[in-house]
């Protein structure tokens, strides 16, 4: 278990420190007590305006469907998007802006009728293309719009990459990542 503490000046740096700790061999749990301390804090209205500008420049999303509220530097995002990668893209656009202390991403994904076999096929293809993830060690189960990943991988990074690939598949509204990390496989 690793506990991170200290001060950083952007929310993105806090998330980067947390992700870096998760990639360290043998780390199973990360407690992140890092505080975001803003050097020059703009007003909530200025932060909201900066967020609107950032979303306007993001070609992956339709920013008219996104509602933004800022309260003491904490950003609340609401609205609807077509795919999870759009939801993630919105959060990525916001997290490095000056004045942002944290994000509550309440954006929902629009439900569409999907072909379960097609999702399984696309996820398997993506795993085969991605050299980081050993797709033979991962089982994919699709139930309606839910995907369940299970199996064993060699690192936290492989587990996260498998999840990222699954989330980027069209039609996935929920994902359960039951993949286990077995560090003994690294040296096998």
Number of helices: 5
Q: Shape, please?
A: flat
> What do the pLDDT scores average to?
83
**What CATH architecture of the largest domain do you see?**
2-Layer Sandwich
- Helicity range: 25-40%
Whole-number tally of structural domains: 3
Would you mind describing this structure in some detail?
- It is a single chain.
- With 188 residues, the chain is of the alpha/beta class.
- It has 3 domains: 2-36, no CATH class; 44-109, Histidine-containing Protein, Chain: A; 116-187, 2-Layer Sandwich (Histidine-containing Protein, Chain: A), CATH 3.30.1340.30.
- Helix content is 33%, strand content 29%.
- The chain has 5 helices and 10 strands.
- The strands form 3 sheets. Strands 3, 4, 5 and 6 form a 4-stranded mixed beta sheet that branches. Strands 7, 8, 9 and 10 form a 4-stranded mixed beta sheet that branches. A two-stranded parallel ribbon has the order 1-2.
- The chain is flat, with a radius of gyration of 18 Å.
Q: What labels would you give this structure?
A:
4-stranded mixed β-sheet; 188 residues; Histidine-containing Protein, Chain: A; 33% helix; 5 helices; alpha/beta
Compact description:
With 188 residues, the protein is of the alpha/beta class. The protein has helices at 11-22, 44-56, 84-94, 116-129, 156-167, and strands spanning 2-8, 30-36, 66-71, 74-81, 102-105, 108-109, 138-143, 146-153, 174-177, 180-181. It is 33% helix and 29% strand.
